[in-house]
């Protein structure tokens, strides 16, 4: 749109300036005039000018000299020279020294003049759009040092505003992600409260599943889906009777096993309507599929089974074997590992078994410290879930602030107990 541009016309003849003003104003441009090169330089220092049109022949400072100075101080403003036929040598000098965009012979043709002005300002408009796009890309990649130094002050100010907004949105996004995972952890904890012997079981499986997924170099999205699915893998058991939940799988009757076998499908159905949990719900449905196709509920084989479900099924069995949930008798870790190895290629994906064995063989290095509530400080990060009687108060990786620290201290006082608080140590 023309009205966004300001044109500076410079000529020592008032009638020439009046003609230019009448012509260009009809096209919607804002016109500023100056009767000498010196006066024009003052205006350039005070006003935002998008295009300069200058006569060649002026006293004291001719057009070539004026435009050469304008080039040095305002190189991004297009420059057009008005010249007569007799000024051909001066015009060449202006082209070389002032690097003018175009020159127009006097007397000019109005349509030609308007076309040349529009062409020059179209280039200016494209350059402005390009600079704005470069600014946005620079902000997203945090490379503000690469911003074009020729951006005008208004564009630079807008750049910093956008950067602050993007940073704020990023921080809000990270907070929402942490809040989402914390909500899932709390919900998983509520599911496990139906059976005291299950407290913390899902969190252990979820942490192990995440490590195995990373060992397999899955994408961050796949790792997240596997972790969430492991936390919520028992959600379908909410509708099962307490008597069935307390019974090991090997002790169930055929009828009870058929009822029990429906819980992955129920868990999948409960979560599938939530867009953020689409991947996790598919993993939950397939957690009891077998690599050899003898699992349930869909008899999937090998790669037909979601990779997260292959990981979750193995990690869940490993922890359940040690807890005695499957056989009714707890196994030693070595016995559970041997059981997993013996089922490689049958119940479990050999590639997942290999990754699992690598993870559990890796020594755990402690990067945490047990600390008392009175010694807590803002910005400390929880190394473990903060639990009270098996109920999760705060999730692992939560950043503490003064308000949370006061609430923790108040809880201990009202509960007459001391919480086990593990803080990350750098």
From TrEMBL:
Residues of the Response regulatory domain: 6-121
PROSITE patterns registered for this protein in UniProt: HD_GYP, RESPONSE_REGULATORY
Gene3D superfamilies in alphabetical order: 3.40.50.2300, Hypothetical protein af1432
Pfam families: HD_5 (PF13487), Response_reg (PF00072)
HD-GYP domain mapped to chain residues: 176-372
SUPFAM superfamilies documented for this protein: CheY-like, HD-domain/PDEase-like
Coiled coil: 123-157
Keywords of the record: Coiled coil, Phosphoprotein
4-aspartylphosphate: residues bearing it: 55
InterPro entries the record matches: CheY-like_superfamily (IPR011006), Cyclic_di-GMP/3'3'-cGAMP_PDE (IPR052020), HD/PDEase_dom (IPR003607), HD_GYP_dom (IPR037522), Sig_transdc_resp-reg_receiver (IPR001789)
Keyword Coiled coil tagged: yes
PANTHER family membership: CYCLIC DI-GMP PHOSPHODIESTERASE TM_0186-RELATED (PTHR45228), TWO-COMPONENT RESPONSE REGULATOR-RELATED (PTHR45228:SF8)
Protein name as annotated: Response regulator
Source organism per UniProt: Iodobacter violaceini
């Amino acid at each position: 749109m023309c009205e966004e541009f300001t044109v500076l016309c410079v000529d020592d003849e008032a009638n020439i300036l009046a003609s230019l003003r009448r012509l260009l104003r009809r096209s919607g441009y804002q016109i500023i005039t100056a009767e000498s090169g010196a006066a024009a330089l003052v205006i350039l220092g005070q006003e935002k000018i998008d295009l300069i049109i200058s006569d060649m022949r002026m006293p004291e400072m001719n057009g070539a000299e004026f435009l050469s100075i304008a080039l040095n101080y305002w190189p991004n403003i297009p420059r057009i020279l008005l010249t007569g036929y007799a000024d051909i040598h001066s015009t060449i000098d202006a082209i070389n020294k002032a690097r003018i965009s175009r020159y127009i012979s006097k007397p000019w043709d109005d349509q030609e003049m308007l076309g040349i002005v529009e062409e020059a300002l179209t280039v200016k408009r494209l350059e402005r759009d390009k600079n704005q796009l470069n600014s946005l890309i620079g902000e997203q990649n945090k490379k503000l040092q690469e911003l074009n130094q020729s951006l005008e002050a208004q564009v630079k100010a807008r750049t910093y505003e956008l950067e602050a907004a993007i940073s704020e949105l990023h921080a809000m996004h990270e907070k929402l992600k942490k809040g989402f995972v914390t909500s899932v952890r709390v919900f998983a904890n509520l599911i496990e409260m139906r059976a005291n012997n299950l407290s913390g079981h899902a969190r252990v499986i979820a942490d192990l599943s995440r490590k195995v997924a990373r060992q397999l170099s899955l994408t961050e999205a796949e790792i997240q889906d596997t972790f969430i699915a492991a936390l919520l893998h028992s959600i379908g058991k909410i509708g099962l009777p307490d008597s069935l939940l307390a019974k090991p799988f090997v002790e169930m009757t055929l009828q009870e096993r058929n009822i029990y076998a429906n819980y992955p499908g129920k868990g999948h159905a409960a979560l599938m309507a939530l867009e953020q949990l689409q991947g996790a719900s598919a993993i939950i449905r397939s957690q009891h599929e077998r690599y050899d196709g003898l699992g349930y509920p869909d008899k999937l084989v090998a790669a037909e089974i979601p990779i997260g479900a292959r990981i979750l099924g193995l990690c869940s069995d490993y922890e359940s074997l040690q807890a005695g949930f499957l056989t009714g008798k707890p196994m030693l870790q070595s016995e559970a590992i041997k059981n997993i190895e013996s089922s490689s290629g049958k119940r479990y994906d050999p590639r997942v078994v290999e990754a699992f064995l690598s993870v559990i063989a890796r020594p755990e290095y402690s990067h945490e410290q047990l600390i008392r509530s009175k010694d807590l400080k803002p910005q400390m990060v929880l190394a473990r879930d903060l639990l009270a009687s098996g109920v999760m108060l705060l999730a692992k990786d939560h950043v503490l602030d003064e308000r949370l620290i006061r609430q923790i201290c108040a809880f201990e006082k009202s509960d007459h107990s001391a919480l086990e608080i593990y803080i990350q140590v750098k």
